[in-house]
Structures are given as C-alpha cells and as structure tokens.
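Service request form, structural biology core

Requester: graduate student, group of Dr. S.
Request type: structure prediction, single chain
Budget code: on file
Notes: please return the result as structure tokens.

Sequence provided:
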Amino acid sequence: MEDLKVINIVRTMMVNHLLNVELICYNFDDSVLHVGRPEMLAMRMSNGRNLQMFRGGKVQIFGKLKHDEAKGMRQELIMKLKTILPNLRVTPLKIVNLVVSVVLKNVIPLRTISSSNSTVFYEAELFPAALIRKWHPAHIAVFHNGKVIITGLKTICDVYALLSELIPFLRSEEHTSELQSLTNLV
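Core staff response, request fulfilled:
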C-alpha cells in the first residue's frame, strides 16, 4: 500500500529507580523541567530531538525516528545519566504506539457510515472525521476525502491486519448502497 505513512512512533524505556528530575536538570544544560501535569524533564539530545523523563523512571522518545536513531538516543542518555547515577540500568526500548496515515482511493460518505453502526461516531460540527471504536486498542479517524489516521497499535503488521478488516467494514452492505460503489478503496 503506497499511501501508508508512519507519522509518529512512541517508544518507552524504564530506569531501574526513581529519577530525581531536579538533580538531572541542574546537571545538564540541555534539559528543561516542566512542572505541572504531567511533571516531566525534557532533554535535548545531540541529534536535536528531545526525550522526556518522569520521576517514576519512565523515559519516552517521540517522533518518526529510525530504530537505530532511537537506540542512539537511548545510549546517549545512559552515558549522560551514569555520570550522576553510576548504578543506572535501563530497559530496552519498546514501541508503545504508532500513528499511521493511510490515504484511500475514494471519498468516504461519512454520514452513511455513522448512521449504520454504534461503534462509529460522526458529528461534523465537532470533528470532521468519523471515529471508529470497533478495533480496540486502535483509534481510527476516517475523513471524507479518504484519509485515515490510525493510532494505538504497536506494529506495522497490526496496522495491515486492521486495514484488512477496516476496508471491508467501510464497504459493507450495512452502510447502504451508497458505499457499495466504493470498490477500489485501496
């Protein structure tokens, strides 16, 4: 599917103990402590990207990064933190969320989709897409121009599996004869 694009990848790792975010912020000029909700420390890495650290030991890396670049950020963080926390151990990176964009080849009549199923919500005055809740934990937004945003999955294989169910769902007869004309979605 040539129109599938990964927009964002959320990766996490855990440090083996609580983080003193004030101490870390004090020791590294490339970090900023954000108080409030959620409280977190943002640290700029040498590649120009930020990562986030929380008191509980969770570290998050966001962005459309190649795995090697994310691993490099992890190693850089470990080297920095070991200067003040010599017994530091960090779990491997784990992908916890993908945000993917897919462009279908046809326009989607959202009003017919939303009126046909209780797992679909479409209120044009509130948001310009139909929100489909049928495939937990995925969140799906289908726009009238054929663009689909999927979030909540962890692998591209999961995305393709969901699309193999989503496209027939969008075409199904329960969505009235208007959708039956959509024979070439992808």
